Amino acid sequence: MMGVFDAIRPYADDEVRPVLARLLADPAFLGTLTRFRFPRLAGPLGWLLKPLIAARLRTELAGIDSVRKLQEKIEPYLDRSIEQATDGITYSGLEGLQAGKPYLYLANHRDIVMDPAFVNYAVYHAGLQTPRIAIGDNLLQRPFVSDLMRLNKSFIVHRSISNRREKLAAYQLLSAYINHSILEDGESIWIAQAEGRAKDGDDRTDSAILKMFHMSRKEAPFAEVIDSLNLIPVSISYEYDPCDQAKARELCIRAATGSYTKAAGEDDASIALGITGYKGRVHLHFGAPVTGFEDSKQLAQEMDRRILGHYRLFPVHYLAYAMWQERDPALKVPEARELFGAAELAAAEAEWQKRLAACSAEEKPYLILQYANPVRNQYRIKAGLPL
């Protein structure tokens, strides 16, 4: 059966050694590592540093012959980068999940790499199995990136297909793979609630993704398929988004011209900034399994209610909402000073002013929007209003 999924699935244990060998012989991979590790020396001394880095990695990875061993090797580095770029990560709801049971985690999407990395971090430290991660093929332009991601339990979502028939076939395969992973392999899945990041801070579930889960099992009722996948809503909340300026710029250009064209290497820059940039505090909430929905649109609304309702709002969100020109006067949103202590609020105000100052006058409304939208959405849910 697995042969059917070879084009998209993560690498299996018996593929780990050959793929690592391929990476250690790949000049593009070693060049990227050299630039990341030694940005000043990479140009003049790259020829010398690349073989040294390859030799060091060969020693480090000598005993790695399974995906689990590789993840255990990477874990301390991930922990360190999380600790350096955040003021702490907290999570809630994990006590409701069972070890050994596979889940389909559907999460809001703000950061290309760190969203699934934080979910991995949370479940790993709670003693649950790490999920297989859905990643768009638009991010896999270079073979070594694809190799790296597939070594770390990622599977490929073919987004860049424009032919309708081919797109349908790709979704059919994706649906079959997700169902196979959970029901046959007993492996959890992480997937974003919609294609692409919510650059305006307005997290919404795309019902087409929920429909896709059902596509490969059309003979069974929608609710039966969804219930069998153990669908878990996950709310990921960053106090500060390292890419907020870039997102504001993109939204501003899009509003002014009607479109936005990414520069070469822009995704790579977003990934690097998302990993290393300051995030403040980060909170993840894992909801209870969502069951009993016969219709994808109603299920999408319920996922929104759960994801947005459990989104942790930080002081900066209330500060942005108070400045937002489109705030809803009918919503009873308290001021930040009513909810947070003086020291916490002062620190947030200083950081927020710094971010506003770094933004041009045209881009500022789009920065405010990113932080204000989650407040609007959560208080509409609290008031029982439609989103």
Short key terms for the protein model shown above:
387 residues; alpha/beta; Glycerol-3-phosphate (1)-acyltransferase; 2 domains; 7-stranded mixed sheet; 9% strand
According to CATH, what is the topology of the largest domain?
A: Glycerol-3-phosphate (1)-acyltransferase
Can you name the CATH architecture of the largest domain?
Answer: 3-Layer(aba) Sandwich
- Mean pLDDT comes to 92
Q: Provide the helix percentage.
A: 40-55%
- The radius of gyration is 22 Å
Number of separate helices:
16
Give the percentage of residues in beta strands: 5-15%
Bulk shape: globular
- H/E element sequence: HHHHEEHEHEHEHHEHHEHHHHH
Count of the separate structural domains: 2
Q: Which regions have little confidence, pLDDT < 50, spanning 5+ residues?
A: none
Q: Give me the secondary-structure category.
A: alpha/beta
DSSP strand tally: 7
Largest sheet: 7 strands, mixed
Give, in spatial order, the strands making up the sheet with the most strands: 1-7-6-2-5-3-4
Give the termini separation: 42 Å
Class of the largest domain in CATH?
A: Alpha Beta
Would you give an account of this structure?
With 387 residues, this protein is an alpha/beta fold. The protein folds into two domains: 67-311, Glycerol-3-phosphate (1)-acyltransferase, CATH 3.40.1130; 313-387, no CATH class. The protein is 52% helix and 9% strand. It has 16 helices and seven strands. The chain has helices at 16-24, 27-37, 42-60, 67-85, 114-125, 143-151, 164-183, 207-215, 222-228, 244-257, 266-276, 296-309, 315-323, 336-339, 342-357, 364-382, and strands spanning 89-92, 104-107, 132-136, 154-157, 189-192, 231-238, 282-286. The chain has a seven-stranded mixed β-sheet with strand order 1-7-6-2-5-3-4, with helices on both faces. Helix 6 links the parallel strand 3 (132-136) and strand 4 (154-157). The longest helix has 20 residues, at 164-183. The model has no long low-confidence stretch (mean pLDDT 92).
